[in-house]
Amino acid sequence: MPISAAEVQKLREKTGQGMMECKKALEESGGDAEKAVEILRKKGLATAEKKSSRKAAQGRIHSYVHHNGKVGVLVEVNCETDFVAKNEQFQAFLSDLCLHICAMAPVAVRREEMPADLVETEKRIAREQIAGKKPDNIVEKIVQGKLDKWYSERVLLEQPFVKEQERTVQNVLTDIIAKIGENIIVRRFARFEVGEGDE
Amino acid sequence: MPISAAEVQKLREKTGQGMMECKKALEESGGDAEKAVEILRKKGLATAEKKSSRKAAQGRIHSYVHHNGKVGVLVEVNCETDFVAKNEQFQAFLSDLCLHICAMAPVAVRREEMPADLVETEKRIAREQIAGKKPDNIVEKIVQGKLDKWYSERVLLEQPFVKEQERTVQNVLTDIIAKIGENIIVRRFARFEVGEGDE
Which chain B residues are Cβ-neighbours of A197 within 8 angstroms? Predict the structure, then answer.
């Protein structure tokens, strides 16, 4: 069964994936667009991990200001091509991400971007809390457990996603990488709240 | 001539100033609203400098994303009361400021907030450029002159305002403080451009 260019283009717009991949998926599904999306999605999930090492130099800046004008968010999300940056799912992710950051007030995108002094203080507190109460050989394990919990409340990618609390932002992102078929990176964000800058 | 509460309220909304000040200005102008604005404006200009030391804990967050989605700005501007934060002139300033930051890409709001290493490098370069070419007693003066120019290209408040190049952003701000009659502070901004974060 021959696949028309229009069908390929339609699937491309829906999934953001490459022309050849879309054509192959349609051939595999016998022209069934919905089944083709499923096929692409399964392939995508399998290669999402691999894709996350590819260069992502395109992307979009997105902003959100709460209706009272007292909290605002600016975010940069990168992808590999401008084609994907225009994709509806990519745009929806940008919008959700801004709402999430506004509501959940993360401190950094990734663990390694957390301010070192904050991390050190937290480690010290955790150690002091259990000092003498637990055998030495499990102290570090407990400290790490406490730190993991602390990170999951402050690191954007580890926070429970505001619209689906049982998944992390990273889970949502991995899923979108799988669907869209390009590496996507949350590069940075800024979150301002009136008055919090007072020192 | 008695001044009605409605007239006072109208002038208050127009200028963002206090009730008593508006009433006094209307009495002084014999009920002429336009003249009253002038009176308030003159008084305001005289006290703008004094006002700039008062606490500004209210304010608004404002954002702007360029139509191509590749440059975005988030800004916090503080004032003393929420009443002024709703003022039309204040809102217009927020909007202009975002456009300015988007176009002019400042590095910091104030000189003292410029990254110290950038300033040191610039000083060193300026000194090296004129070393041995000018008498020692005027070297520091020339270095300072070069630095002043360098700051005026990178410090938000010292940049020529994008909509009126013959005035600085600080000039525009001082004028608005005078008009509105409250201290107003540009607290902070973020400016993201797709790809510039690549290291």
Answer: 76, 187-188
Distance from CA of B25 to the nearest CA of A (A): 31
Chain B: nearest CA to A74, how far in angstroms?
6
Tokens of B137: 């007693």
Please state, as a whole number, how many other Cβ atoms lie within 10 Å of the Cβ of residue A111.
15
- The reply to whether residue B70 touches residue A60, judged by beta carbons under 8 angstroms, is yes
CB B72 within 8 A of CB A62: yes
Q: In sequence order, which ranges of chain B are alpha helices (DSSP H)?
A: 5-15, 19-28, 33-51, 82-85, 88-104, 116-130, 136-154, 169-180
Asked if residue B183 lies in contact with residue B48, where contact means CB atoms within 8 angstroms, the answer is: no
pLDDT tens, A165-188? 999 999 999 999 988 888 999 999
Which residue type does B187 have?
A: R
Contacts of A87 (CB under 8 A, 6+ apart): A13, A16, A180
Could you report the per-residue pLDDT of A37-90, keeping only the tens digit for each?
Answer: 888 777 765 455 555 556 778 999 999 999 999 999 999 999 999 999 999 999
A65 and chain B: CB distance < 8 Å anywhere? yes
pTM above 0.80, yes or no: no
